[in-house]
Amino acid sequence: MNRSAPGAIVVLGPDEVSKALGKSIASISSLELCEPSYKRFPDGEQYLRLTCDVSRRHVIVVKTFMPDQDSSALFALLAADAAKEANAESVTLVAPYLAYARQDRAFLSGEPVSVRALLRALWAAGYSRLVTVEVHKPDSLKEFPGTAYNVRPYPLMVDSIGLRSSKDLVVLSPDLGALERAKILAEHLGVGYDYLEKLRDRYTGQVSVKPKSLDVNGKHVIIVDDIISTGSTVVTAINELRRAGATGFDVIVAHALLAEGAEERLRSAGVSAIYAANTTPLRGSIVHQINVAPAIVNGLRSLGIIH
Ligand code: R5P
User: Fold this and answer.
1) pLDDT level of residue 5 (50, 70, 90 thresholds)
2) What pLDDT, in 10s, does the model give residues 106-152?
3) Which residues pair with 78 in a beta bridge?
4) Domain 155-290 is of which CATH architecture?
5) Domain 9-151+293-302, what fold?
6) Ligand 1 center–CA 88 separation, angstroms
7) Is 99 within 8 Å of 73 (Cβ atoms)?
8) Nearest C-alpha to atom 10 of ligand 1 is from which residue?
9) Vertex 153: Cα angle to 166 and 291 (nearest 5)
10) Does residue 183 have an active-site annotation?
């Protein structure tokens, strides 16, 4: 049986994804739950009130940043402020999906480093610790002035799916930036891994994959990425790999955002199943979600919030 640090309490975000994950985290760690009262004013502004006593307690706010990203971020800011106002000992944010993480530098002059702006705002609101699941680039968490932990969900995910090592299996990331993801997953399975070179036109958003000399002929490929949004990255990878002789595919991502038209695009490319963490709302019938709360709990333990 896990014991919580004295006084730790989980505050649930108002959406179903945050509630489910928060309850799961609390149940695994034997933590008390607090569901704030929450409403929207007629003009759309958010209101919340912590109805539990959080004074001198370690408060863990669970709020995924979907949907929608902007109100989720604002809810997180309000929750931290409410906890500090109520004399919380510390406030930790569990943001299973951290939005704005892909804008981790100013690609064009005049752009913000959005993730930096968000992380600094969260810290300023009162969060001293942050746990997130597979942020786009873990390095960007250095912009958080407190302590941050990036949960790598893939080993837990492949174990839950029941994927086993085989000589015909290879793990592939759609670009060099995601190679670490392929490495973690491949080493867990004991199979080979590689990446495809990807170019994204910053003006049109068009993605192209440069041919790479991968020996995927006759192989079953696990494609791993942090996010599926429009699906075009995965579809481009599959088309390229199929041309190179790959015989089958599994798609594993941390966050299946599935923007408008993505499911249709993926189905047309022959994708019948996507395995994703339960960090965002379940969209489309081809997505199978895996509960990553146990991996988040490990992250909270690493930060010393719970034992
Ligand atoms: C980009 O660098 C990310 O790692 C993902 O590959 C990308 O966000 C996926 O987006 P989409 O599904 O729209 O291609």
Assistant:
1) very low
2) 999 999 999 999 999 999 999 999 999 999 999 999 999 999 999 99
3) none
4) 3-Layer(aba) Sandwich (3.40)
5) Rossmann fold (3.40.50)
6) 38
7) yes
8) 229
9) 105
10) no
Dihedral of the CA atoms 290, 173, 100, 231 (nearest 10)?
-80
Q: pLDDT tens-digit profile of 204-256?
A: 877 667 546 568 999 999 999 999 999 999 998 999 889 888 999 999 999 99
pLDDT of residue 67: 78
Ordered by start, the domain boundaries in the chain are: 9-151+293-302, 155-290
How much distance in Å is there from the Cα of 3 to the middle of ligand 1? 38
User: Cα(19) to centroid of ligand 1, in Å?
Assistant: 26
Phi, psi for 209 (deg, rounded to 5): -110, 125
Best mutation site among 172, 198, 227, 232 for ligand 1 pocket (most ligand atoms within 8 Å of CB): 227
3 state DSSP class of 28: helix
Ligand 1 pocket, residue 229 CB under 6 Å: yes
Which among 39, 198, 212, 219 is annotated as catalytic? Answer: 198
Tell me the CA–centroid distance for residue 200 and ligand 1, in Å: 10
Helix (H) or strand (E) holding 233: helix 232-243
- Amino acid identity of residue 154, one-letter, is Y
User: Using a 6 Å cutoff on CB, does residue 174 contact ligand 1?
Assistant: yes
Q: Which of 64-68, 69-73, 104-108 has the lowest mean pLDDT?
A: 64-68
The confidence band for 198, taking pLDDT boundaries of 50, 70 and 90, is low
